[in-house]
């Protein structure tokens, strides 16, 4: 794409009126002091840290200039190393430097106490960013609670589209066929039948008894048949109260079943060290190398086995599998249904990094209005959203005939698009636009989507930081010892007591108090 064409496209996006008007008073300033708007005839100046700073953006990049023209703004774009975000930002804060908008990567109460975050009026959010607010309401209204402190809003919640999809459970379809199972297992009994056949009926046909049913990645799916699967220091919400999943009595039932399966050699004894022996986190060398027939630590896009045209080879982990087993086949499964009808796969959850407005910005209603209007535009203008997220058309991305957007990689510089301003001003993901840009991918994701257990989102508390390491270690060691039979199943009761006595009770007390405070109760 020529420079002239790029400029023409971006100029079209910049066709918007000047921001005017006065907002409701925002928190962070002196009580009773009315905020004063800056001169509307001049560009509003914003110190900007509302992005993932993978590279230093060029302040003269076409995208930067387009956004400045569109919103009558002038940006001082902060750059901090994304790998050292908190350290570098804290140095700036200590020196008295503060941006106008930033990603909130710390506990909100801490930032509020240190004067980093200002209250954001809900009336202003719904006035200047109504589409955005409705998306949050419709997608998961509890996301508002994640940015509240003492009942007040101190951030703009954001959505992780991929977190709406549970992790994928993957079967060796060719193994199921080989052992005479023509239906993807759905219940614990059906899982047990398939895993026994994988162990005992030589599904890889090498004449040796060297295959197992599953390893460590599938453990959480089995626990999910009894309720929220324990994963170190994660929580469940019971009758409005936050509790640790690890000590729930249902997990004792799950461990009893897993102990039984381990004794019957359905679980690979090497699960203790893990089925991933290196490389990308979603890889399973045990699955690739004909050792197990069930895995489940990746997402639908990792294991995508539906090809989207010439040259497409599917998801990265599917490709790795096919390289190891060219004649092998996979099938997407469902989490097993347990004795009380419960089931669910591990799930990241839709909550993502929120944006905050600082007291410095809150003093100027124009700044707050500009920030909210920029956010709203990302939820109403697809061309604008695509440009600020993905970069320049023809340089950073191209559009397929079905409307899907394909990235164009720079062979010489992986950060080239970031330097040209991509991802600096998109602020957060718009789920509808995200799906529009990747139609085939998310249509496939929807076709294999199962039930999941998203995490219970609660405020971080200091006691969790203090005790989580030891509690997580205690949970992992005890669970493993019960599964392999080094400790009896009934030792779970003593474990639960020890877990609570050694910090668990204190964390539950603190997190419940913080949770109620977050809700303004």
Task: Please provide a written account of the structure.
By secondary structure, the chain is an alpha/beta fold. It folds into 2 domains: 2-163 and 350-447, D-Maltodextrin-Binding Protein, domain 2 (3-Layer(aba) Sandwich); 170-346, D-Maltodextrin-Binding Protein, domain 2 (3-Layer(aba) Sandwich). The protein has helices spanning 3-13, 62-70, 85-94, 108-113, 122-128, 130-140, 173-178, 188-200, 219-223, 249-263, 285-288, 316-324, 359-362, 365-378, 382-390, 416-419, 431-437, 439-448, 462-484, 491-518, and strands at residues 44-49, 73-77, 101-103, 148-149, 152-153, 156-159, 168-172, 212-214, 235-238, 241-244, 292-298, 330-332, 345-346, 351-357, 397-399, 405-407, 452-453. The protein has a 5-stranded mixed β-sheet with strand order 2-1-3-14-6. Strand 1 (44-49), helix 2 and strand 2 (73-77) form a beta-alpha-beta unit. The longest helix has 28 residues, at 491-518. The radius of gyration is 26 Å and the shape is globular. The model is unreliable at 1-11 and 13-34 (pLDDT under 50).
Topology:
Blueprint (H helix, E strand, L loop, with lengths): L2 H11 L30 E6 L12 H9 L2 E5 L7 H10 L6 E3 L4 H6 L8 H7 L1 H11 L7 E2 L2 E2 L2 E4 L8 E5 H6 L9 H13 L11 E3 L4 H5 L11 E4 L2 E4 L4 H15 L21 H4 L3 E7 L17 H9 L5 E3 L12 E2 L4 E7 L1 H4 L2 H14 L3 H9 L6 E3 L5 E3 L8 H4 L11 H7 L1 H10 L3 E2 L8 H23 L6 H28 L3
Parallel strand pairs: 1-2, 1-3, 8-11, 13-17
Antiparallel strand pairs: 3-14, 4-5, 6-14, 7-11, 7-12, 9-10, 15-16
């Amino acid at each position: 794409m020529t420079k002239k064409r790029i400029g023409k496209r971006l100029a079209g996006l910049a066709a918007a009126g000047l921001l005017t008007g006065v907002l409701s008073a925002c928190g962070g300033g002196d009580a009773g002091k009315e905020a004063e708007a800056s001169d509307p005839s001049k560009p509003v100046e914003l110190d900007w840290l509302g992005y993932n700073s993978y590279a230093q953006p060029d302040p003269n990049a076409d995208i930067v200039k387009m956004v400045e023209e569109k919103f009558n703004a002038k940006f001082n774009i902060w750059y901090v190393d994304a790998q050292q975000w908190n350290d570098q930002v804290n140095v700036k804060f200590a020196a008295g430097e503060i941006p106008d908008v930033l990603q909130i990567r710390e506990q909100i109460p801490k930032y509020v106490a240190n004067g980093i975050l200002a209250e954001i009026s809900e009336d202003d959010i719904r006035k200047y960013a109504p589409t955005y607010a409705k998306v949050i309401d419709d997608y998961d209204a509890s996301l508002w609670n994640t940015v509240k402190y003492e009942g007040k809003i101190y951030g703009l919640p954001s959505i992780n589209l991929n977190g709406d999809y549970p992790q994928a459970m993957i079967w060796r379809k060719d193994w199921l066929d080989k052992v005479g199972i023509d239906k993807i297992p759905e219940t614990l009994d059906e899982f047990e039948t398939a895993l026994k056949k994988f162990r005992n009926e030589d599904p890889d046909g090498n004449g040796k008894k060297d295959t197992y049913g599953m390893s460590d990645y599938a453990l959480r799916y089995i626990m999910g048949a009894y309720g929220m699967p324990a994963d170190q220091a994660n929580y469940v919400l019971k009758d409005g109260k936050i509790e640790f999943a690890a000590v729930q009595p249902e997990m004792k039932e799950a461990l009893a079943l897993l102990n039984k399966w381990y004794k019957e050699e359905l679980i690979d004894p090497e699960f203790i060290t893990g089925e991933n022996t290196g490389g990308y986190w979603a890889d399973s060398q045990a699955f690739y190398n004909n050792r197990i027939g069930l895995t489940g630590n990746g997402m639908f896009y990792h294991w995508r086995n539906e090809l989207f045209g010439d040259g497409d080879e599917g998801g990265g982990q599917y490709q790795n599998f096919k390289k190891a087993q060219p004649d092998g086949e996979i099938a997407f499964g469902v989490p097993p249904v347990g004795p009380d009808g419960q089931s669910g796969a591990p799930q990241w959850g839709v909550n993502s990094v929120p944006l905050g407005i600082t007291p410095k910005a809150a003093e100027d209603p124009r700044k707050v209005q500009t920030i909210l209007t920029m956010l709203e535009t990302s939820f109403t203008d697809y061309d604008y959203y695509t440009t600020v997220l993905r970069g320049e058309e023809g340089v950073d991305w191209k559009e397929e005939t079905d409307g899907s957007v394909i990235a164009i990689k720079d062979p010489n510089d992986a950060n080239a698009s970031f330097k040209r301003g991509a991802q600096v001003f998109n602020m957060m993901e718009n789920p509808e636009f995200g799906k529009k840009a990747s139609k085939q991918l998310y249509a496939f994701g929807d076709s294999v989507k199962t039930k999941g257990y998203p995490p219970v989102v609660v405020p971080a508390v200091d006691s969790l930081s203090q005790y989580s390491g030891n509690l997580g270690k205690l949970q992992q060691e005890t669970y493993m010892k019960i599964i392999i039979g080094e400790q009896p199943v009934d030792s779970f009761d003593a474990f639960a007591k020890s877990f609570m006595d050694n910090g668990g009770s204190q964390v539950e007390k603190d997190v419940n108090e913080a949770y109620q405070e977050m809700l303004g109760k």
